[in-house]
């Protein structure tokens, strides 16, 4: 068990190094000219050169790379080119919004997917199952940004004044939290809910054909109890695994939801930074996302080992 | 198909014996059997019909432009916008309305369909070719090559997809709409080939153990021959299924990148950029949201249903993953 953790952590360090190097290379081979963004339309060539000198961009790329690497172990991601604040502080400001968005949506989609998935698996091919299937396919086929735009339209123009009670744009963490977050949560959760419903249903159907489920039925347990107590636990394993993987990666894909609903989270931060050529911020967010994916994967693996004793010695 | 028909497909109908006696016995190849199963699947056939309609809509894009007299990139501020500068809704001059610059939404949607279909099919085909090659080589060769390819695929899977895609699309300079489309296809394919390759590698690893491979080896077949003649044909089913599912997800990826302004560049319209360029205009002009949005949804839904149908036809034992019908 400790060996697994150590090996995975070492692997994580290698992945983080590779990802940061790759990002560094992409951004330096063909950078957005940050001096033009900062200097404005009236700046002269001299100003451009001065800006580049101030940011250390006139040094050879290997020197820049070394400086970047040397700072990393201290948790220092450098300063933003655009406003000079430390990247960690910038990300820290934006992270709560994104975490609220992701965790609220995750609760929604996990609960929704689980309930519908179990309900369908309990009665395969019933009217209920088919109705849910239609929604699942629609959910899986709706691009998240189309869902977000449609919800926004419905609750702003479509419902007129009544919609204002449901959605209001603005910073969510200060006031009217629910009114600002409910629509983004639904927009983000819709596709995932469909995927989780599908996954739960398949996993549940697998488990329901196991021998021990037949035993439970044979000894006369009510079907409800068989489904909820005996089958559900075993069926949850792959679903929880998927949740771990998705939660880690989701911070990167909230870009679209944040953009449509005007939420100032990490997604918006990195989207704006890419346009402005603010390399340190871009690398910082990329590292954060990769790190959370790796940690989520590790937690899932450890969780697996606890659930399934056979994996502990593997 | 109903549950009843599903049962029938497994058991021969009662009069099968009579018919067999009357008709001469004819052999049916696996692909013929699959085609017959597919034809009976009404949902899949309907999806195919919808996709053909969309393809025709896309192919005839110049005709729509000719009939309306509105080239896709031309703006018509006088006829397309009202006195207040707001886009006109669907009507005589503009069948599906005009956008905020006074361009024809119908014509742009038709050209956008070309982009979506090209990007979806192009990226899926590219990812499928690369994934099959990498997966087969890794699974078959084993050793150092396997480790290298498997690690490479793991790396790609560990990258934050949308972030790196936006980065690549922003930093690589493109000169034209066509170049930006090619770039978008490459980016999407790069990020989908890894998961694809991993699945293929798994399939190859299990195929490698089977007896017919051993038999071929005993007969003195070379590695290349076994790969091309024994392994590849057995991968046909997973390749078809995986590729059919990659198409809708690639279409969504292209639309998302274009929506964010880093996919297909103007003047060429894409459904994603049509949704993105309008900004908030769709709040007063519903057709700016409804037309590209519903086309996008219809296309991905049809491809997903078609993919399900293909999977069922190729593997009659496996239950349709979404269940039900």
Automatic annotation (TrEMBL), chain A:
Origin: domain of life: Bacteria
PROSITE patterns, A to Z: ABC_TM1
UniProt-listed CDD domains: TM_PBP2
Cellular location(s): Cell membrane
Domain annotation ABC transmembrane type-1: ranges: 95-300
UniProt keyword list: Cell membrane, Membrane, Transmembrane, Transmembrane helix, Transport
Positions of transmembrane segments: 9-29, 101-122, 134-157, 177-196, 234-256, 281-307
Membrane-protein topology: Multi-pass membrane protein
Family as reported in the entry's similarity comment: Belongs to the binding-protein-dependent transport system permease family.
PANTHER family for this protein: DIPEPTIDE TRANSPORT SYSTEM PERMEASE PROTEIN DPPB-RELATED, DIPEPTIDE-TRANSPORT INTEGRAL MEMBRANE PROTEIN ABC TRANSPORTER DPPB-RELATED
Protein name in the entry: ABC transporter permease
TrEMBL record, chain B:
InterPro entries in UniProt: BP-dependent_transpt_permease, MetI-like, MetI-like_sf, OppC_N
Keyword Cell membrane belongs to the record: yes
Stretches the record annotates as Disordered: 1-26
Membrane-topology descriptor: Multi-pass membrane protein
Superkingdom of this protein's organism: Bacteria
Broad class of the protein's primary localization: membrane
TM regions (residue ranges): 44-65, 115-140, 152-172, 178-196, 235-264, 284-307
Keywords: Cell membrane, Membrane, Transmembrane, Transmembrane helix, Transport
Domain ABC transmembrane type-1: 113-307
Residue ranges with Basic and acidic residues bias: 7-21
Places the protein is found: Cell membrane
Family named by the database record: Belongs to the binding-protein-dependent transport system permease family.
Stated name of the protein: ABC transporter permease
């Amino acid at each position: 068990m400790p060996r697994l953790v150590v090996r995975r952590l070492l692997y994580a360090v290698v992945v983080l190094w590779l990802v940061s190097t790759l990002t560094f290379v992409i951004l330096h081979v063909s950078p957005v000219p940050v001096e033009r963004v900062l200097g404005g339309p009236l700046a002269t060539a001299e100003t451009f050169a001065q800006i580049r000198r101030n940011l250390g961009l006139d040094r050879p790329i290997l020197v820049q790379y070394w400086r970047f690497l040397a700072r990393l172990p201290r948790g220092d991601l450098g300063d933003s080119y655009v406003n000079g604040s430390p990247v960690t502080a910038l990300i820290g400001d934006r992270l709560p919004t994104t975490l609220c968005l992701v965790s609220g949506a995750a609760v929604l989609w996990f609960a929704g997917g689980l309930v519908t998935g179990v309900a369908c698996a309990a009665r395969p091919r019933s009217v209920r199952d088919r109705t849910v299937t239609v929604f699942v396919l629609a959910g899986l086929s709706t691009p998240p940004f189309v869902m977000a735009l449609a919800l926004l339209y419905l609750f702003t123009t479509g419902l007129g004044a009544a919609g204002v009670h449901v959605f209001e744009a603005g910073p969510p963490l200060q006031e009217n939290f629910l009114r600002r977050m409910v629509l983004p949560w639904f927009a983000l959760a819709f596709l995932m809910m469909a995927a989780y419903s599908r996954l739960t249903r398949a996993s549940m159907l697998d488990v329901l054909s196991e021998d021990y489920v037949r035993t439970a039925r044979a000894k006369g347990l009510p079907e409800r109890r068989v489904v909820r107590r005996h089958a559900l636990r075993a069926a949850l394993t792959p679903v929880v695994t998927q949740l771990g993987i998705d939660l880690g990666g989701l911070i990167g894909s909230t870009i679209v939801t944040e953009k449509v609903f005007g939420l100032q989270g990490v997604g918006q931060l990195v989207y704006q930074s890419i346009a402005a050529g603010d390399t340190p911020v871009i690398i910082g967010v990329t590292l954060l996302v990769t790190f959370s994916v790796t940690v989520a994967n590790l937690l899932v693996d450890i969780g697996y080992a606890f659930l399934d004793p056979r994996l502990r010695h593997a | 198909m109903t549950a009843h028909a599903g049962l029938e497909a497994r058991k021969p109908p009662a009069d099968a014996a009579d018919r067999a006696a009357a008709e001469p016995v004819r052999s049916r190849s696996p692909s013929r059997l699959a085609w017959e199963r597919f034809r009976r699947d009404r949902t899949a056939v309907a999806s195919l019909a919808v996709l053909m309609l969309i393809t025709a809509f896309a192919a005839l894009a110049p005709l729509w432009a000719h009939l309306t007299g509105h080239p896709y990139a031309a703006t018509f501020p006088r006829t397309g916008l009202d006195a207040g500068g707001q886009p006109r809704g669907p009507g005589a001059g503009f069948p599906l309305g005009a956008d905020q610059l006074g361009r024809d939404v119908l014509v742009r949607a038709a050209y956008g369909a070309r982009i979506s279909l090209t990007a979806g099919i192009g990226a899926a085909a590219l990812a499928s070719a690369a994934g099959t090659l990498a997966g087969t080589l890794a699974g078959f060769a084993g050793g150092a090559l396997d480790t290298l390819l498997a690690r490479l695929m793991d790396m790609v899977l560990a990258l934050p997809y949308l972030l790196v895609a936006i980065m690549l699309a922003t930093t690589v300079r493109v000169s034209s709409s066509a170049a930006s489309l090619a770039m978008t296809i490459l980016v999407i394919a790069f990020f989908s080939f890894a998961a694809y390759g991993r699945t293929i590698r798994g399939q190859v690893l299990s195929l490698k153990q089977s007896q017919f491979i051993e038999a071929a080896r005993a007969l003195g077949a070379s590695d290349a021959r076994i790969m091309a003649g024994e392994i590849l044909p057995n991968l046909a089913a997973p390749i078809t299924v995986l590729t059919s599912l990659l198409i809708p997800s690639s279409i969504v990826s292209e639309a998302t990148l274009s929506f964010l302004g880093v996919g297909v560049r103007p003047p060429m319209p894409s459904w994603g950029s049509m949704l993105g360029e309008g900004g908030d205009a769709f709040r007063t002009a519903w057709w700016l949201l409804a037309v590209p949005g519903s086309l996008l949804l219809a296309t991905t839904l049809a491809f997903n249903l078609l993919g399900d149908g293909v999977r069922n036809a190729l593997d009659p034992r496996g239950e349709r993953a979404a269940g039900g019908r």
